[in-house]
TrEMBL record:
GO terms for biological process: DNA repair. Keywords: Cytoplasm, DNA damage, DNA repair, DNA-binding, Nucleus. Its main location: cytoplasm. It is found in: Cytoplasm; Nucleus. It comes from Cirrhinus mrigala. It comes from the Eukaryota. This is PCNA-interacting partner. Belongs to the PARI family. InterPro entries: PARPBP (IPR038932). One of its GO terms (cellular component) is nucleus. PANTHER family: PCNA-INTERACTING PARTNER. GO terms for molecular function: DNA binding.
Length: 78
């Protein structure tokens, strides 16, 4: 909840890899669910909402959704 804590780098990298695949909605069947992943994802989403920010994956997903409905040759407008 607060204060110092320790975590193995391998656990951070495994959670990050799973997180990226999950957020990009790609298959992550061959990767085991990291310990406390639901809590990590919930806290990350709460952080983004609390700070009124988006991450690069959110920007990419929004761009991709906008491009589906538009002509790929035309530039995006505001």
């Amino acid at each position: 909840e607060h204060g110092d804590f320790g975590v193995a780098l391998s656990e951070v990298l495994a959670a990050w890899k799973y997180f990226l695949l999950d957020k990009l909605q790609l298959s992550h069947n061959d990767i085991p669910l990291p310990q406390n992943y639901d809590l990590i994802r919930k806290e990350y989403d709460c952080f983004l909402k609390r700070t009124n920010t988006v991450d690069l994956i959110d920007v990419f997903i929004t761009f991709k959704e906008l491009r589906i409905n538009e002509d790929p040759e035309e530039p995006l407008t505001a």
